[in-house]
């Protein structure tokens, strides 16, 4: 099937043909046969790089009205925005933040790209534009099974189907065990395929060779299996990367932690990869781009590695540094990225060879194997269409675990997608939202709305009645819902909690903290007060507190106790509270003018961690201001601290 056979306007046909897309891949042709160009609901469960974005574009460009593209990550949203913005004559909008806004301006665009959280928050704030949607594309729909964000995606999609019942749904999924269940839920045709534009072979490394699933075995040069100094997983990874680069390819190396990603990058820069790949000048230019994006010790370390064709990538990096690395790798100006597993679920960075050095992660109490789906996502990055003759994925093991790795990941099937909606915290959040937005006005109404979820479709006679009843009682106790005749309604506080897009538990903590702060001596109410108030909530990211920091933080709390809304003896989770005070202290120093480098060095956090906490604190301070107005508390320090925080975030000191 050819592009010029499709029901596309001539300008779109010309656009795709000029990009080298003339003949459809088999999964794309199957999606056309399934009705994606005719308004039909389609679930495409196909491998990475098999043309999912083009399937999405077919739905969006042939829809009789505006379209919405939902994706899980901001970086991915930005990438898709840029891709869609290149379509001739198509107005594209993007929205990934401002959780207290209906984003009414998005109604003016042909296509909107947004995260599921932003779509959910826009609905809570009365976004009328969602009712006019003609096509909704959901990328990475298998994340329905993810803890945390899975229930949000599930309820958001169910609500969109209720608000825009005639909208076409195009759901894009990785290869999972039960795509037919997702298709049944969405009343969609299933397109399932293992076809890839570049052949992929997967294997396990042990004893200086790789056994692949095509029954071949390849010796790895530069490794002496009898020499303990050269037989470890890091040296094996280095040899596998060198081999890929020497053959004219690029490599991705996945490890378990940020520290390991940086250490591996430091090790690989010894191997002269930029020179071997013939990209010395390009790599030097990348190093300067990293430095131009902002100077931190971590940024300088990244730049020094980039000059040798090597980069590391993890959430501790600032977002602009991550963007430089991703772009440079796609442009083939870097030879290898050493990354944590989050890169596999994010932006498009394919490579000739993927090396999965670590297949287990630390959970806080021990180690556990990575899910098969997660490892397959990493492996699926191997093979660049139109650039590589093949792709290779290698799991690094040894003689003791090679059989386990082979059985678990090479022969193993990815896990089934299971709804996480039964989680009590998720139900509490979404029950409040359903009532606050007017979708439901009773327990029966909540259950009716939840009846459109993936959970309900997979659970015969779902036993949610008792749990929802308990959740409603809890929300009434929190003063966020109230009896209303024979039904229920959101209180002013509950409606504000929902609009501000914070969890009910966060709303309850903010209200308690606001009332405490209002009763404090005004001279003791400082920026630290405001920041501790918002940091001691479930919606703020945790900040690790090391053993060596504990005594110093304890002394800090004793010295600043009068400024805090919670006393040391008033918390049921002292360790968690102490971590929140650490976060508040970092942000207070940031507001007072401390630099990124000073805070990174002083508190053992990454620049990206600081960036995300500044952003979250600004959001939560705004939410606290809104709730203070509802409960009649005047606390000017909230606004003044937020004003100081926002410019500081923009300046990227």
Automatic annotation (TrEMBL):
InterPro entries: DEAD/DEAH_box_helicase_dom (IPR011545), Hel308-like_dom4 (IPR048772), Hel308_SKI2-like (IPR050474), Helicase_ATP-bd (IPR014001), Helicase_C-like (IPR001650), Helicase_Hel308 (IPR022965), P-loop_NTPase (IPR027417), WH_DNA-bd_sf (IPR036390). Transmembrane segments: none annotated. It is an enzyme of class 5 (isomerase). It catalyses: Couples ATP hydrolysis with the unwinding of duplex DNA by translocating in the 3'-5' direction; ATP + H2O = ADP + phosphate + H(+). Its EC number is 5.6.2.4. Keywords: ATP-binding, DNA damage, DNA repair, DNA-binding, Helicase, Hydrolase, Isomerase, Nucleotide-binding. Residues 239-425 form the Helicase C-terminal domain. ATP binds at residue 28. Pfam families: DEAD (PF00270), Helicase_C (PF00271), Helicase_dom4_arc (PF21280). One of its GO terms (molecular function) is ATP binding. One of its GO terms (biological process) is DNA repair. Residues 33-194 form the Helicase ATP-binding domain. DNA-dependent ATPase and 3'-5' DNA helicase that may be involved in repair of stalled replication forks. PANTHER family: ATP-DEPENDENT DNA HELICASE HEL308, DNA POLYMERASE THETA, PUTATIVE (AFU_ORTHOLOGUE AFUA_1G05260)-RELATED. Monomer. Belongs to the helicase family. Hel308 subfamily. This is ATP-dependent DNA helicase Hel308. The gene is hel308.
């Amino acid at each position: 099937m050819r592009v010029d056979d499709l029901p596309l306007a001539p300008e779109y046909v010309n656009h795709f043909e000029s990009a080298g897309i003339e003949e459809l891949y088999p999964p794309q042709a199957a999606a056309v046969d399934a009705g994606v160009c005719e308004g039909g609901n389609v679930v495409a469960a196909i491998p990475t790089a098999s043309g999912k974005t083009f399937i999405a574009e077919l739905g969006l460009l042939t829809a009789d009205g505006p379209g919405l593209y939902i994706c899980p990550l901001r970086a991915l949203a930005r990438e898709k925005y840029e891709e869609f913005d290149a379509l001739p004559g198509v107005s594209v909008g993007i929205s990934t933040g401002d959780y207290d806004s209906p984003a009414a301006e998005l109604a003016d665009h042909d296509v909107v790209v947004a995260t599921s959280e932003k779509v959910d928050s826009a609905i809570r704030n009365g976004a009328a534009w969602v009712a006019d949607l003609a096509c909704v594309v959901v990328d990475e729909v298998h994340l329905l099974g993810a803890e945390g964000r899975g229930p949000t995606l599930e309820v958001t999609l169910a609500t969109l189907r209720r608000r825009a019942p005639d909208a076409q749904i195009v759901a894009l999924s990785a290869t999972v065990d039960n795509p037919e269940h997702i298709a049944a839920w969405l009343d969609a045709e299933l397109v399932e395929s293992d076809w890839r534009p570049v052949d992929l072979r997967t294997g396990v490394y042990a004893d200086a060779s790789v056994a692949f699933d095509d029954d071949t075995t390849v010796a790895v040069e530069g490794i002496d299996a009898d020499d303990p100094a050269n037989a470890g997983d890091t040296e094996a990874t280095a040899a596998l990367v060198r081999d890929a680069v020497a053959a004219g390819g690029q490599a991705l190396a996945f490890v378990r932690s940020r520290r390991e990603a940086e250490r591996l990058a430091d090790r690989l820069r010894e191997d002269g990869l930029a020179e071997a790949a013939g990209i010395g000048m390009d790599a030097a230019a990348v190093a300067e781009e990293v430095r131009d994006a902002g100077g931190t010790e971590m940024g300088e370390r990244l730049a020094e590695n980039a000059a040798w064709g090597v980069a590391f990538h993890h959430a501790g990096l600032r977002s602009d540094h991550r963007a430089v690395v991703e772009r440079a790798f796609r442009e083939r100006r870097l030879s290898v990225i050493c990354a944590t597993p989050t890169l596999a679920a994010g932006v498009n960075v394919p490579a000739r060879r993927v090396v999965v050095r670590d297949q287990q992660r630390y959970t806080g109490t021990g180690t556990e194997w990575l899910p098969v789906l997660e490892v397959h996502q990493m492996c699926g990055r191997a093979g660049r269409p139109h650039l590589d003759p093949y792709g290779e994925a290698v799991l690094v093991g040894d003689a003791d675990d090679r059989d386990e790795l082979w059985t678990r990941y090479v022969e193993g099937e990815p896990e089934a997608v299971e709804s996480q909606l039964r989680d009590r915290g998720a139900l509490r959040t979404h029950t409040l939202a359903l009532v606050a937005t007017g979708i439901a006005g009773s327990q029966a109404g909540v259950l009716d709305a939840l009846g459109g979820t993936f959970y309900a479709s997979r659970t015969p006679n779902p036993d949610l009645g008792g749990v929802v009843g308990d959740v409603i009682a809890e929300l009434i106790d929190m003063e966020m819902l109230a009896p209303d005749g024979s039904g229920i309604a959101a209180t002013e506080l509950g409606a504000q909690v929902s609009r501000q897009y914070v969890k009910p538990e966060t709303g309850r903590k903010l209200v308690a903290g606001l009332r405490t702060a209002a009763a404090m001596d005004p001279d003791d109410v400082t920026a630290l007060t405001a920041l501790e108030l918002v940091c001691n909530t479930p919606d703020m990211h945790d900040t690790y507190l090391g053993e060596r920091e504990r005594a110093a933080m304890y002394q800090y709390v004793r010295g600043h106790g009068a400024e805090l809304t919670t006393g040391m003896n008033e918390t049921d989770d002292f360790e968690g509270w102490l971590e929140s005070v650490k976060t508040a202290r970092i942000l207070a120093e940031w507001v007072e003018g401390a630099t990124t480098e000073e805070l990174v060095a002083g508190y053992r956090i990454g620049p990206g961690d600081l960036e995300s906490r500044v952003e979250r604190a600004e959001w939560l301070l705004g939410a606290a201001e809104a709730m203070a107005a509802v409960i009649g508390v005047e606390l000017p320090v909230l606004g003044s601290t937020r004003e100081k925080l926002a410019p500081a975030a923009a300046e990227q000191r």
